[in-house]
Amino acid sequence: MFESLDDRMKHDDQEVTTTRERLLKWVVVGVISVIVFGGLWMGVQMME
Fold first, then answer.
1. How many whole angstroms separate alpha carbon 33 and alpha carbon 41?
2. Closest CA to 25 of 16, 9, 5
3. Residue of 14, 26, 43, 48 with fewest CB within 10 Å of its CB?
4. CB of 20 within 8 A of CB of 29?
């Protein structure tokens, strides 16, 4: 039925999460990334 562990994980992920939950997860990841990299950039700017 499943060719690999990756296929199985994708199948399990689809059963557990909805499209809205996956979208929300990626939005949160994006916001956190912007905050972290923005903080690093601000730190470098303050050192100059």
1. 12
2. 16
3. 48
4. no
The whole-angstrom separation of Cα 45 and Cα 48 is 5
| Residue 10 contacts residue 4 (beta carbons within 8 Å) | no
Q: What is the pLDDT of residues 1-48, one digit of tens each?
A: 557 877 777 776 666 778 898 899 999 999 999 999 999 999 999 998
Q: Which residue has the tokens 């689809």?
A: 14
pTM for this predicted structure: 0.61
Separation CA 21–CA 45 (nearest Å):
36
Rounded to whole angstroms, the Cα distance separating 18 from 42 reads: 36
Which tokens in the block code for residue 46?
Answer: 């303050």
